[in-house]
Specification:
Elements: E1 2-11, E2 16-24, E3 27-32, E4 42-45, E5 50-53, E6 55-60, E7 65-66, E8 69-70, H1 75-84, E9 87-94, H2 102-113, E10 120-126, H3 132-141, E11 150-154, H4 165-178, E12 181-185, H5 189-201, H6 208-213, H7 216-232, E13 237-239, H8 245-256, E14 261-263, H9 267-271, H10 282-286, H11 300-309, H12 325-328, H13 348-358, H14 364-378, E15 396-406, E16 425-435, E17 438-442, E18 445-446, H15 463-466
Parallel strand pairs: 1-4, 1-5, 6-9, 9-10, 10-11, 11-12, 12-13, 13-14
Antiparallel strand pairs: 1-2, 2-3, 5-15, 7-8, 15-16, 16-17, 17-18
The protein binds N-(aminocarbonyl)-beta-alanine and zinc ion (ZN) (3 copies).
């Protein structure tokens, strides 16, 4: 099957140029100023359009069993929403229950995803308990067939997913040994649990209690602590859903010292804020409940976008984990029972374009970097993914920068009955989405096939995570797995004569 994309402007993370793109059997086979269509070739007219690498969302939770409920977007509806929004690959999380074998959980996730995905996907794995057996299984799943190169640790959700600091530290030592990336949900879960009890016993039961139980300081503290422990373990670290300036500052502090730390803001954190938690309508407020809470300071979304522009934060995700109004209402009398999670996978590309490029904060190349290329590099599937280049998978979006659309539950493809971006008018619309050479979204219609997406194994030892120089020439500190011998330093003796 062949496809010709004509007259567009190709945008990669490091270049923009006018060219045609020829696709054959799922791959990009030619890029040239003018390619003549042969008879029978399907032609996509991209005049006045950008031709960009399909979005990669490195953080989703399709059909996640969580807080007694199951997230509504399954791998079918969730990936349909993704491609309708210009995302052609997701990285979802295998999350074993406490004490469960990683291999058993892995098989369950593959069993859910493989028959349902309409676009390609990779997997990251959460470590929710610790022991020698888990360490051994971590080694197994970093092998080729399993395709796992990152492990996520939760410092929140006490009693459910949370690990203790010493478990997190030992887990990161194992990640460093396996040349895998550690990822962290950074909030102080123990203090949050105390605050929840206190708020409930003082009569605060509504969604405002959710944000009051989780002040920014508890995100910033956990982020700083995670970075500190990662540097002690000589392990590269990726902080998921950075939701506050304090957390971003903790990342910047450690990067300045040479640590390899990546920061991921999410669509919800870039395009909406925590004022919704105080809405008079209880259910409206509950829809926004996620952790960490949406910006507790209204200037944060714009600040996070500027940090992406400055390279202090690195890529965008969504944390797509959707619960409908009925599920949200199960926490009517107790905010700690509102299932945590929001939508994003369909709207991320448009809201990042609108709040980033249209707002004049980032350029189209940076947009491609933070929505696609950085994820491909960090998770080690670049340049197969994340680039318009000969030999790359034909995961391509024809992007209309001048068109607008209004986000609404009435037109979205999620399996839930609300959208946290409801009514937002955004500039930047994915007109055509192509997954490995097949048009899956065009003229506002899905043309997907369940199960047509493929699992993309992600091998360890990513160049950008473990090399001294990233491919824009910026020096990264190498991660020294072998520690230099410890040399005791003595504090300067106070001057006796002073
Ligand atoms: O509230 C959230 N973020 N739900 C999904 C699970 C997680 O913490 O990533
Ligand atoms: Zn999380
Ligand atoms: Zn609101
Ligand atoms: Zn998450």
């Amino acid at each position: 099957m062949s496809l010709l994309i004509k007259n567009g402007t190709i945008v990669n993370d490091d270049a923009m140029f006018k060219s045609d793109v020829l696709v054959h059997d799922g791959k990009i086979v030619e890029i040239a100023p003018s390619i003549d269509p042969t008879p029978g070739l399907e032609v996509v007219d991209a005049t006045d359009r950008f031709v960009i690498p399909g979005g990669i969302d490195p953080h989703t939770h399709m059909q996640l069993p969580f807080m007694g409920e199951v997230a509504k977007d399954d791998f079918h509806r969730g990936t349909e929403a993704a491609v309708a929004g210009g995302t052609t690959m997701i990285i979802d999380f295998v999350i074993p229950t406490k004490g469960e074998s990683l291999l058993v959980a892995y098989d369950r996730w593959r069993g859910w995803a493989d028959p349902k995905v309409v676009c390609d996907y990779g997997l990251s794995m959460a470590i929710t308990s610790w022991g020698q057996e888990i360490a051994k299984e971590m080694e197994m799943v970093t092998k080729a067939d399993y395709g796992i190169n990152s492990f996520k640790f939760f410092l929140a959700y006490a009693g459910v997913f949370m690990v203790r600091d010493e478990e997190f530290y030992q887990g990161m030592l194992q990640c460093a040994k396996l040349r895998a990336l550690a990822r962290v949900h950074a909030e102080n879960g123990a203090v949050i649990a105390e605050r929840c009890e206190h708020l409930l016993s003082s009569g605060i039961t509504g969604p405002e209690g959710h944000t009051q139980s989780r002040p920014e300081e508890l995100e910033a503290e956990a982020t700083f602590r995670a970075c500190t422990m990662a540097s002690q373990a000589n392990c590269p670290l990726y902080v998921v859903h950075v939701m506050s300036k304090g957390a971003a500052a903790a990342i910047a502090h450690h990067r300045k010292k040479g640590a390899v730390v990546f920061g991921e803001p999410i669509a919800a954190g870039l395009a909406t804020d925590g004022s919704h938690y105080y809405n008079e309508d209880w259910l409206h407020a509950a829809r926004y409940v996620m952790s960490p809470p949406l910006s507790r300071d209204p200037s944060t979304p714009n600040a996070l976008m500027k940090l992406l522009a400055a390279g202090e934060l690195h890529l965008t995700a969504t944390d797509n984990c959707t619960f409908d109004c009925h599920q949200k209402s199960l926490g009517k009398d107790d905010f700690t029972k509102i299932p945590n999670g929001v939508n994003g996978v369909e709207d991320r590309m448009s809201v990042v374009w609108d709040k980033g490029v249209h707002a004049g904060i980032i350029d189209p190349m940076k947009f491609v970097a933070v929505t696609s290329t950085m994820a491909a590099k960090i998770f080690n599937c670049y340049p197969r993914k994340g680039r318009i280049a000969v030999g790359s998978d034909a995961d391509i979006v024809v992007w209309n920068a001048n068109a607008t659309r209004t986000i609404s539950k009435d037109t979205h493809h999620h399996a839930i009955d609300f959208n946290i971006f409801e009514g937002m008018q955004v500039h930047g619309v994915p007109e055509t989405t192509i997954c490995r050479g097949r048009i899956v979204w065009a003229d506002g219609q899905l043309r997907t096939v369940q199960g047509a997406g493929r699992f993309v194994p992600l091998p360890p030892d990513s160049q950008i995570v473990f090399s001294a120089v990233d491919n824009r020439g910026k020096a990264l500190e190498p991660v020294k797995v072998e520690r230099a011998p410890y040399v005791a330093t003595t504090l300067e003796a106070p001057d006796a004569n002073a």
